[in-house]
Amino acid sequence: MKIFENNLPEYNVIGKEEIEGAIEVLNSGQLSGFVATPGKAHLGGRYVQKLEELFCKKFNCKYAASFNSATSALHGALVATGISEDDEVIVTTWSMSASATSVLMAGATPIFVDIEEEYFCIDPNKILKAISKKTKAVIAVNLFGMASDLKKIRKICDTNKLTLIEDNAQAPAAICDNKYTGSYGDISIYSLNRHKTIQCGEGGVAITDNDKYLHRLRMVRNHAEAVFPEFDDIEKSNGGDDIIGYNYRLTSLQAAIAIPQVKKLDNLNKHRILLANKLTEMIEDISFLQAPKIRKGCNHVYYLYPMIFNDEIAGFSRDEFINRMSKEGAPISGYGRPIYRMPLFNLKNSKNNSNDPKNFPVTEYMWKNIITTSICRPPLTEKHIDLFVEAIKKVSSLK
Q1: For the segment 85-140, what is each residue's pLDDT rounded down to a tens digit?
Q2: What is d(CA 325, CA 336) in angstroms, rounded to the nearest whole number?
Q3: How far does Cα 205 stand from its chain's mean position?
Q4: Nearest CA among 55, 37, 44, 34 for reference residue 258
Q5: Inter-residue contact 46 to 259 (CB < 8 Å)
């Protein structure tokens, strides 16, 4: 009999407040407040504006602009900061593909930089070596729920006059040196995708303290070329005539669902941290698994719980371990292949062989040896952590 006798419940943090918000919008008959014309309708309806105000209050920023996904928000951020053809943007080797494809969407070239050995995030020391005359920005991804070395990366960007964009999709409300992740970037991106800690199905939000960036974010999400000539001189002073706009708009229905989600964020993170701390304690004596390390001065909010697998100690491969655990019903897997290994970025299309896997030894090692689990999420409980560890001990004793 397998350890997890029943299928685990799907991730679902939608409750009464979200349902009431959705019904309120449905009853209004106005599912979106956006119109591609100057004026208030260019900013979306009251639900969208309320969500953006809530983000500003929660994350201590001046401005927020919602988008229909974090991917479109990343693209919008690059356009807003003036990234274009012939520019280079330094990106991590290991993340969801949009962290790099957004650079291509803006017409620029992503320059991959290897990750740190302990925290899986872009290595600031290697950022320095990757800077060229064409470098205009750095995208730092806070992976799995752990902050990048944001203070150091911020300093590098300031010294070299580079824009810092934080991809904070996996670490909402994580803390780094007494500040929220997302507080270090010139623009920072949050995700509301259905898999994320807070969600409305699909969606994203970009936050910034720069009013020019805010204006351009709003332009790129809502058909800039169609409305720019009609904007007044004050709005035009922030630019936008060079922007091709898209339909990157968030609906009122999504915003109404996202609003109570933001209010729940701290409690949702506390739940994940509680379960993760228990798991870390319970696997301490399992020699072939290394629990995630936490950067000094930061916390971890565990979008995923990553572990490094040692096959020499275990006596069998990482993939065999994943297979055995999966048969026990445990939620476990590796993590996606490095971005530079995706066909779009493969070696034959790479400039000067810069995407050769040999250039990224840490990423290559982690890709082949890491294990991730979603066992530390609501509505799962400490009972599920006990079962997960029981499964580890069972499969590791098999010959």
Answers
A1: 999 999 999 999 999 999 999 999 999 999 999 999 999 999 999 999 999 999 99
A2: 18
A3: 11
A4: 55
A5: no
> What does the angle CA 277 – CA 182 – CA 237 come to, to the nearest 5 degrees?
170
Q: pTM of this prediction?
A: 0.95
355: its two tokens: 């995407």
Q: How do residues 292-305 score in pLDDT, each as one tens digit?
A: 999 999 999 999 99
Query: 3-state DSSP: the chain helix, strand, coil percent, rounded to 5?
Result: 45, 15, 40
> For residues 267 and 259, what is the distance between their CA atoms, to the nearest angstrom?
15
- The two structure tokens encoding residue 138: 């750095």
Q: Which two tokens stand for residue 377?
A: 């999420």
For CA atoms 324, 326, 331, 337, the dihedral sign is: positive
Token pair for residue 272? 């994940």
Q: Return the residue matching tokens 């300093």.
A: 155
Please check whether residue 268 is in contact with residue 145, taking contact to mean a CB–CB distance below 8 angstroms. no
- 311 burial (CB, 10 Å; 0-12 / 13-18 / 19+) is middle
User: Can you tell me the distance from the alpha carbon of 356 to that of 194, in angstroms, rounded to the nearest whole number?
Assistant: 33
Distance CA 145, CA 94 (A): 14
Distance between CA atoms of residues 139 and 78, nearest Å: 10
212 φψ region: left (φ > 0), alpha (ψ -120 to 50), beta (else):
alpha
CA distances from 310 to 143, 216, 336, 386 (A): 21, 48, 19, 22
The first and second tokens of residue 243, run together, are 């922007």
Residue with tokens 């969801």: 96
pLDDT at 348 over 50: no
The Cα-based distances of 80 to 72, 228, 394 in angstroms read 12, 15, 52
Query: How would you list the strands of the sheet with 187-191, edge to edge?
Result: 63-67, 204-208, 187-191, 163-167, 135-141, 88-92, 109-113
